[in-house]
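sry for the spam today, last one i promise. struct tokens for design, 525 residues
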């Protein structure tokens, strides 16, 4: 069983058939001057080659169509190959990546047509206008339409790609928001629960050394203190699992107490802490970002002091400045059973990132016999995310340029085609010899007497192929028998020799039978 041909070959065959149809029928219905059969066959073969090359090499396909049109008509305009010329120009704009080769090809076609008109043209001015109008309106304009079509498709594809990219970005944003919320919960658990557990351990330690307490209760207080410390460590490990190294600073939860209340509650729990505000009132907005950030810094520093230096005195110094607020927490030497604090924990690292992100400074490290944490937070407000400026739209600008080119080409082509049509109509109308005037002409009449009845112009493109052989040495002129446009009409041929009319012939229109021709000649005589 024979396998069906692929779709591209079928489309190519249909395209070739559509282009070959006007090439074979235009002569027969009188729209062109008849041509020999071998010329028609050669033209159809060239169209087949151009159709085969139109997908892989659209520039070569257009070049073949342009060469075929120039061969058939000096002015490039021919109804036999005009559809093929415009279609291959459209495919050139649709399938070619670069514009420069097409522009050079158009220039080459224009130069070749101009040279041919200058060398063998009968009436160069109107022929050049027709050629230029055909080149612009029948080649450049379809090419620009193809490029506009191509860029519209590319713009649509880019739009779908951008939509998919925006969906991916939205998913990433949602995932990032989920991770940041997880980081916020983890940080809040670390700060709040760690602080409370440290205060519980501190109270248990104070209870353990309280006078008048039995040994059983002292052991229970010691177990409570150890359990609180162990819970704090487990919480720290859990938070380390929830947080990631590349997490952004977590959003700050609203503080439900002031800094002074936080320090007072720590003092009530048994932490030897002293509150020392200095300077002017801090320019802190209640519930704002700066207040929440300071609350977090003080809470984390108090928690570390209770964990790593239980029993050591802590001083909390708050200094209000015109541009912000500075807070410093200093604790003394650690208790004998305590451990030296370290600045490598996730709590201090998170504080450093948060304060730095707000435009402040953060320092934490050993100080004399103890440890000091200091932070400066400017008087900041909630930062709003900056609106993203719309990205560049290269396709939009490219489409505007192509649309402008289309408009310019359409305007120029319309003007040139209008001028060419006007000149064509003028030339054809002023080359009409009335049949009655032709019938009155007699052989042997002096040329000066014949000139009085002849029109202003003779025919630019005479039907020499269909006319009988002229007398040797005679100067023959052709005139139209009717002023109809865009159809085949009868022509009159007058031949002069030695200043006298020596021959007069009728060249019938295409499709007129031999019997009709004889009747027309008899009527003309």
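last one done:
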């Amino acid at each position: 069983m024979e396998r069906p041909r692929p779709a591209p070959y079928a489309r190519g065959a249909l395209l070739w058939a559509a282009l070959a149809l006007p090439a074979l029928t235009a002569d027969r219905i009188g729209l062109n001057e008849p041509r020999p059969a071998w010329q028609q066959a050669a033209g159809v073969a060239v169209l087949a080659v151009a159709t085969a090359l139109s997908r892989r090499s659209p520039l070569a396909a257009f070049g073949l169509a342009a060469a075929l049109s120039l061969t058939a008509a000096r002015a490039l305009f021919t109804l036999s190959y005009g559809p093929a010329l415009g279609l291959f120009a459209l495919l050139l704009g649709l399938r070619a990546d670069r514009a420069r080769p097409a522009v050079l090809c158009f220039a080459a076609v224009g130069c070749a047509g101009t040279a041919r008109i200058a060398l063998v043209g009968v009436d160069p001015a109107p022929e050049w206008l027709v050629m230029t109008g055909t080149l612009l309106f029948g080649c450049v304009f379809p090419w620009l339409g193809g490029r506009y079509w191509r860029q519209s498709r590319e713009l649509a594809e880019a739009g779908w790609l951008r939509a998919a990219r925006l969906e991916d970005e939205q998913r990433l944003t949602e995932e990032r928001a989920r991770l940041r919320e997880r980081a916020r919960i983890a940080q809040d658990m670390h700060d709040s629960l760690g602080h409370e557990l440290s205060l519980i351990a501190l109270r248990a330690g104070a209870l353990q050394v309280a006078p008048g307490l039995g040994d059983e209760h002292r052991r229970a207080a010691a177990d409570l203190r150890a359990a609180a410390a162990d819970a704090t460590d487990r919480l720290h490990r859990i938070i380390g699992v929830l947080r990631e190294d590349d997490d952004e600073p977590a959003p700050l939860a609203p503080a439900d107490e002031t800094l002074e209340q936080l320090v007072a509650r720590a003092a009530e729990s048994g932490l030897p802490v002293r509150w020392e505000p200095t300077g002017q009132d801090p320019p802190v907005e209640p519930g704002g970002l700066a207040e929440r950030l300071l609350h977090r810094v003080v809470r984390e520093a108090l928690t570390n002091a209770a964990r790593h230096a239980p029993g050591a005195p802590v001083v909390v110094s708050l200094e209000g400045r015109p541009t912000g607020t500075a807070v410093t927490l200093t604790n003394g030497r650690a208790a004998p059973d305590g451990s030296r604090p370290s600045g490598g924990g996730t709590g201090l690292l998170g504080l450093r990132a948060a304060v730095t992100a707000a435009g402040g400074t953060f320092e934490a490290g050993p100080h004399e016999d103890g440890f000091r944490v200091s932070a400066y937070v400017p008087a900041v407000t909630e930062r709003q995310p900056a609106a993203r400026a719309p990205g560049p739209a290269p396709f939009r600008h490219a489409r505007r340029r192509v649309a402008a080119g289309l408009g310019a080409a359409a305007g120029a082509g319309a003007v040139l085609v209008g001028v060419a049509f006007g000149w064509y109509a003028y030339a054809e109308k002023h080359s009409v010899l009335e049949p009655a005037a032709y019938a009155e002409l007699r052989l042997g009449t002096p040329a000066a007497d014949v000139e009085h009845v002849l029109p202003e112009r003779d025919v630019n493109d005479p039907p020499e192929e269909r006319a009988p052989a002229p007398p040797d040495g005679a100067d023959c002129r052709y005139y139209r028998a009717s002023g109809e446009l865009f159809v085949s009409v009868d022509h009159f041929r007058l031949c002069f020799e030695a200043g006298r009319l020596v021959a007069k012939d009728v060249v019938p229109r295409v499709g007129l039978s031999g019997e009709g021709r004889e009747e027309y000649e008899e009527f003309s005589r």
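Residues 431-524 form a domain with the Beta-lactamase Inhibitory Protein; Chain:B, domain 1 fold (CATH 3.30.1450). ok im logging off now
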